[in-house]
Amino acid sequence: MRLSTIKLAGFKSFVDPATLPLPTNMTGVVGPNGCGKSNIIDAIRWVMGESVASRLRGDALTDVIFAGSTTRKPVGQATVELVFDNSDGGIQGEYGAYAEISVKRLVARDGQSAYFLNGSRCRRRDIADLFLGTGLGPRSYSIIEQGMISQIVEARPEDLRVHLEEAAGISRYKDRRRETESR
Ligand code: ATP
Ligand code: MG
């Protein structure tokens, strides 16, 4: 499974619709301070379901919507879509048969938020389910941010275990069990 395209519109500094192709296994993003590099990482974590504004470097969840600039008016909504190449079958389950999987999130100024899987409306939970055990998720190890290495090195064994379980692919089953037990 490989992230192959990121599409953004109205998200933070990406006011105009932008398509960022990631054609190879390694892509570097370079640019001057404040040009929007970290906003791309925020976008990925946001689509994955991150719902704590401070983890997206904002105060409110609607802060991800383009807030206007000296030359542009604010916009009413933000969308981000991630397209995954799943030809290796890295994503399993209901959507595993698709060679390409699209995950999209939209938020409007009134706070209304929606998620889409291959174009169909879905729950945040469905997105989380899709990626459980793949290492990808709003807070999973596939995104290593500044300071996270030392956090992992210094983590308590029980916190470290969460990452190991995700890497081993068993977090999916533990999550299911938790859900069943809570019913
Ligand atoms: P650095 O090299 O300093 O880490 P960067 O390329 O990572 O910079 P970002 O943090 O991604 O930069 O982008 C910051 C820019 O995004 C700022 O100019 C900020 O004004 C703009 N920005 C963030 N949120 C919004 C928003 N909701 N509306 C408009 N612009 C925004
Ligand atoms: Mg940055």
From TrEMBL:
Q: Where does ATP bind?
A: P32, N33, G34, C35, G36, K37, S38, N39
Q: Which superkingdom?
A: Bacteria
Where in or outside the cell? Answer: Cytoplasm
Q: What is known of its domains?
A: Contains large globular domains required for ATP hydrolysis at each terminus and a third globular domain forming a flexible hinge near the middle of the molecule. These domains are separated by coiled-coil structures.
Q: How does it assemble?
A: Homodimer.
**Function, in words:** Required for chromosome condensation and partitioning.
Family in the record: Belongs to the SMC family.
Q: What is this protein called?
A: Chromosome partition protein Smc
User: Where does this protein come from, organism-wise?
Assistant: Frateuria aurantia (strain ATCC 33424 / DSM 6220 / KCTC 2777 / LMG 1558 / NBRC 3245 / NCIMB 13370) (Acetobacter aurantius)
Organism lineage reads as: Bacteria, Pseudomonadati, Pseudomonadota, Gammaproteobacteria, Lysobacterales
